[in-house]
Amino acid sequence: MSEFLYDRPRPDLLETFENPYPARDYEITHVAPEFTSVCPKTGHPDFGTLTLRYLPTEQCVELKSLKLYYQSFRNHGAFYEAVTNQIADELIRLLKPKELELEANWTPRGGLHSVIRVTHTA
Amino acid sequence: MSEFLYDRPRPDLLETFENPYPARDYEITHVAPEFTSVCPKTGHPDFGTLTLRYLPTEQCVELKSLKLYYQSFRNHGAFYEAVTNQIADELIRLLKPKELELEANWTPRGGLHSVIRVTHTA
Amino acid sequence: MSEFLYDRPRPDLLETFENPYPARDYEITHVAPEFTSVCPKTGHPDFGTLTLRYLPTEQCVELKSLKLYYQSFRNHGAFYEAVTNQIADELIRLLKPKELELEANWTPRGGLHSVIRVTHTA
Amino acid sequence: MSEFLYDRPRPDLLETFENPYPARDYEITHVAPEFTSVCPKTGHPDFGTLTLRYLPTEQCVELKSLKLYYQSFRNHGAFYEAVTNQIADELIRLLKPKELELEANWTPRGGLHSVIRVTHTA
Amino acid sequence: MSEFLYDRPRPDLLETFENPYPARDYEITHVAPEFTSVCPKTGHPDFGTLTLRYLPTEQCVELKSLKLYYQSFRNHGAFYEAVTNQIADELIRLLKPKELELEANWTPRGGLHSVIRVTHTA
Amino acid sequence: MSEFLYDRPRPDLLETFENPYPARDYEITHVAPEFTSVCPKTGHPDFGTLTLRYLPTEQCVELKSLKLYYQSFRNHGAFYEAVTNQIADELIRLLKPKELELEANWTPRGGLHSVIRVTHTA
Amino acid sequence: MSEFLYDRPRPDLLETFENPYPARDYEITHVAPEFTSVCPKTGHPDFGTLTLRYLPTEQCVELKSLKLYYQSFRNHGAFYEAVTNQIADELIRLLKPKELELEANWTPRGGLHSVIRVTHTA
Amino acid sequence: MSEFLYDRPRPDLLETFENPYPARDYEITHVAPEFTSVCPKTGHPDFGTLTLRYLPTEQCVELKSLKLYYQSFRNHGAFYEAVTNQIADELIRLLKPKELELEANWTPRGGLHSVIRVTHTA
Amino acid sequence: MSEFLYDRPRPDLLETFENPYPARDYEITHVAPEFTSVCPKTGHPDFGTLTLRYLPTEQCVELKSLKLYYQSFRNHGAFYEAVTNQIADELIRLLKPKELELEANWTPRGGLHSVIRVTHTA
Amino acid sequence: MSEFLYDRPRPDLLETFENPYPARDYEITHVAPEFTSVCPKTGHPDFGTLTLRYLPTEQCVELKSLKLYYQSFRNHGAFYEAVTNQIADELIRLLKPKELELEANWTPRGGLHSVIRVTHTA
């Protein structure tokens, strides 16, 4: 199996770089339409779009490391609500943003289409 | 007849799991475009889309159990207004959400298209 | 001529059923895109979409009876303004709703397209 | 009841005028999106769009008379297939066209949407 | 359980009426977007749109009876391929059409969306 | 009446200019979405779009004169079929084109929408 | 790791059922918009939509087993061209179809968007 | 007047470069949506889109020179038909293409919208 | 290599002209859909659309100089967040605008699509 | 400057892999919407979308190497016609395809939008 594939979330892969303009409030948005994890109840894969929006303070998340962190959920089993909050928590801990919103928009399973939205203000 | 099909609503099928992040307010939406029940007056099937949106407190509804609960209305006869309120009631009782909204959007019958919307705040 | 066709409006056809959840405020919408009556001046048929939205108190209007009531205008001659207000009046008298809105959106006649909207608050 | 409304089809209302350019082949199309008749089985009204296309020989159908003829089906009960063919027959008899096509596109009834298409070549 | 719901297909419900214009070839199309049956493997409901197109000979299928026949599959378990062919067979036997096409377009199950198309020429 | 308004079609207003490239076949299209004339039966105005397409031989129609010619139908009463053929005839006589097509697409009158298409080949 | 996830393609998971109507030619299409495998060069996941269309002979592919077979590529590394042909080959061997077409439409990688299409006739 | 503005078409501005692949047939298209000239009758500006498509032989037209040539019509008065043919002629003389098509699509003037299309084959 | 290509940002290329109407507040927007720079981590090019909106005080940015300034990032390596803020800073320093907003909308990299938005008020 | 950026086209970067299914004809398409090179006349950057479609024989082009090859034109100056043919030539030489088509669709320059299309058959 490829070295890029993991069986558990790898927050240790996340890297930051120093916010190049900490004196100014500005908004960063990263949209990831190819997120996938596994349903803990059925073992079948889930697919969704993660939209992360935040106002940085001292650190910004490095984009490639964010991609690798998202990829590390590929074979991980967890409910939608847990996955979304776990990622939000990790990014809040890492970035200490002024504001952060994470919305996970999941493709239909069993005819149901779900959206989980977490909002955080420092 | 299949074991998955019922002739009466089965709220006992609903399962919850512990809200993994009870300390945080976040929003959960489940859209079910394949809901069907039976018109109590004509005996003909009705079809609609149920959109559930809520802010959890201690429990979240498990998605597959929600699907099975919705499926249990398949051969049940009730007016649109009763079905929508009955489901809202059951979910409010089960989840004790901070807020909950349930909108049922029914396909046309006799040339009329109906929408029922229930809103609840704790 | 069919027993379903009438030459005058038939409010006596309207039926109600007991609001199954009177303790809760919720919104009911019925959209009827196939309403037709007759222009009293030219004798030509008019066509329109009736959108009824209301908050019930003790009674809800039964859907099939609403359809039959609407159908009873088929050969009735009245101006747009009169038809829309007459139907709103009848439903307000019958349902005693907290709020009710009726919008009639008429297809073009002589190149003019008309909309009549009636709003009622208890 | 208005003098414009009838309880049976009135082909006698159809009028023609002399084709002003019989020496030339040309195509005439009339689209009528507000046709309505009655279902002979349920007594409920049916709604549809009639699209007539023909190549005239010596006569053309006068537009207002076509509208009145269509309106005369308003309270007439007949199956989709019969209505469409009956109108096509009447127009073929009246106009003796080189070619004629009549398509009736009906709005949904009981969840089914139907289209009947008749084609005639002299 | 309502008298309109069945646990097996009911071809005996199908009715025909005499083709009012047997001397002429014309095309009849009925689109049914609310077909539902049951997956024989999982017991879960399937949903789809059936599009029937045919050229009649001596008989036409009556629309309400077609609706009831389609409804009778509501609690019946069968693969997509079998359901589509079974309905096509029944209608071919009943109508002896010059041509008939039946396309079943199923909503996604497990992330897969399927279409089955049967074509028949006399 | 203003000098710009006419009570009869004025083909004498049409002007041509010498085809600057008679040695070559090329195609000219003029679309006029603001044509208006009068219904000879009701006296009400009709509106339509005229699309003229032709291959010139020795003469081309001058655009402003074409506009004035079209404007001269403003208070003229004639059936759709007659207007369309009359204009086609006038332009064929004037231009002697290799090919010419004129399509008149009329806005709805009494709920009917009509299209007349004339095609000519030298 | 879930029992549903594999590190190599599992054609042994494919199941067939007997074609219920072998005497008739008909067309089966399955669209899978959530296919994912791994790039053998970078180790990063690839995502695509597989569209399978075939005319069955004696066997049809069972839908759930097709889903599981597709899922078994989740952690498998192979070029687009190889994956698409390998799946086509397996299905041709299994189903011996009269005709089969498989199109894989891949989401962009490094700014490039690719489509591979395989066509087979018996 | 600015050195960039001309009062007459300047074919002398056109430059070519040697076709880099004369051994192969390939197609070149240049779309110029900002062409403008002057109506010789009213003095008002005309605007249009010129679409040039050709198969080169030994020379290709240099893009910037084509732009300047087009710009040189800015204050030139000529009918649509003349402008389009004049440009086509100039390019045919210059490029000696295997095939060339020039379509001029003019914005509405006095309510009329015109298209002139010239096709040339060597 | 062309004199127009640079390996570092060239703010010295930016030119301004005097605001011709400093007494009035008005809004200026420049949209540049062809911005490109280089990812400092992977060395691969990035592409995006820069939307600049500002209210001028005494100076406006000259459009061609803005284009050249943007082009000077072509071979420059920097994170999205740094590029966007650096350009905003330079323009704020140069123009001293009442308000300025710069939004950079980047095309997908590794399946992630990013937007950086900087807002400044004097 | 990054090691990924070049000042001349680098066909030596192209890699192939053995066609995994040489016995079968199938179609491969790669769409690259982020191609950029430099205008040899003005020194300004050009942007375009390259669409490559081919039927492989013994070799397929490896996707990442194709991306790097395309990137190597980033600072290279050449006319549209030359760039498109040069890339087509290189790929024809490398892949010896049964058929190959390359279309380059360039964004507007000086108000002109160009498309170059090369087609090759073995």
Automatic annotation (TrEMBL), chains A, B, C, D, E, F, G, H, I, J:
Q: What is its EC number?
A: 1.7.1.13
Localization annotation: Cytoplasm
Please give the start and end residues of each transmembrane region.
none
This chain's source organism reads Alienimonas chondri
Protein family (similarity comment) = Belongs to the GTP cyclohydrolase I family. QueF type 1 subfamily.
Q: Which gene encodes it?
A: queF
**One Gene Ontology molecular-function label:** preQ1 synthase activity
The record's SUPFAM superfamilies line, in alphabetical order, gives:
Tetrahydrobiopterin biosynthesis enzymes-like
Q: What is this protein called?
A: NADPH-dependent 7-cyano-7-deazaguanine reductase
Query: What functional role does this protein have?
Result: Catalyzes the NADPH-dependent reduction of 7-cyano-7-deazaguanine (preQ0) to 7-aminomethyl-7-deazaguanine (preQ1).
Q: Which Pfam families match?
A: QueF (PF14489)
